[in-house]
Amino acid sequence: MRNLVVITFLPVLLCAQQPAEEQKPAVVAAVIKVENANGKDGDTANLKNKIYVSVANLEAWTDRPSNPEEIILFLDDRPLKTVTASVTGPPKDGVTRIAFDLMPDYSDPDEARNWRRLLVSARRAKDGRVALSIGVAGKAPVGSGLRLKLNLERWYSKLIYLALVALAAGVVILARLTNLLRDGAPPLAPGQHPPYSLARTQMAIWFLIVLAAWCYVSLMTHSAAPLSDQVLGLIGISGATALAALAVDTGKWSKEIEERTALKKPEPVAPKSKGWLRDILSDVNGVSLHRLQIFVWTVTLAIYFLWSTLRDLVMPEFDNQLLVLMGISSGTYLGFKWPEKVVSKEDAGGTAT
């Protein structure tokens, strides 16, 4: 009986006497080097170019041969899942060299959001550098301590910015010297100009702001920025307001001249400019509320437009109610503009027109 018990528990006793097998330490991959498109050590890269990342222990870390489709590039801790990866060759001394093609993909909303936030982070960083790491599905990204400097501007970016500044300056100069942004009143004596037009000024403001924002976003993202429906709506409202204001002014002047001709009175004297701000906020009776309203809303939306563009690197998408508000302001301005007198009593010789 005793021998039977010993034989039964002998395997258990032998296993208990053997030392426990030591647990293998977890293999950790490490990003050890990043190279630019020229294949040289460097932490600067351009969009739409390649970078080369050297990773140690990649295959041991993933427990399988390197599959480029599973490797994800992380920049600024954001996964760029549509960035294509390719292994340049078999591992050498345990180091795998991976090529990543920095081609932004803005067709997917989530990927586009990651790219824009990444570019905003790179722009805000003092040195333009963002954290770099890699990962695979089901594993946390590999920390590297390396930072990649994204070169967002090309050699021609400053030329385009200078051209935009020159265009804005040209509009201001022409506005002062010509009737580019002035009311369509009858000609005045040489050296004199009619008042500035609020509607034309608004149209010029939105033209310059939208053009500058589109160029900036396109240059920073290296892709033509799509125009949102709200931006097209703003351009349409400002253009329609300027066109309607011109039609109102032309109609009123034609009617005034016909009435004076029938009564054998001298033709009306066109009002003269009294300065840009005073002209756009005033009619013949002084500063008017409907003009002040559209001016304030235009400035407010313009500031929001620029701030939103710089913050998100995308052409802003306004709330539709803001567009309705802008349309109401423009409609109110045009509604009050129709009964406005084209000349004051003094210019008309003391007779109301």
Summary?
The protein is of the alpha+beta class.
Terminal CA distance: 132 Å
| Strand content range | 5-15%
What is the arithmetic mean of pLDDT? Answer: 80
Low-confidence stretches: 3-24, 345-353
Assembly context of the chains = single chain
Radius of gyration: 35 Å
> What level of helicity do the residues show?
40-55%
Q: What does the largest sheet look like?
A: 5 strands, mixed
Strand order of the largest sheet: 2-9-8-4-5
Figure out the total of helices.
9
Count of the separate structural domains: 2
Instruction: Find the count of extended strands (DSSP E, 2+ residues).
Output: 11
> Helices and strands: which structural class?
alpha+beta
Order of helices and strands: HEEEHEEEEHEEHHHHEEHH
Q: Could you say which overall geometry the principal axes of the C-alpha atoms support? A: elongated
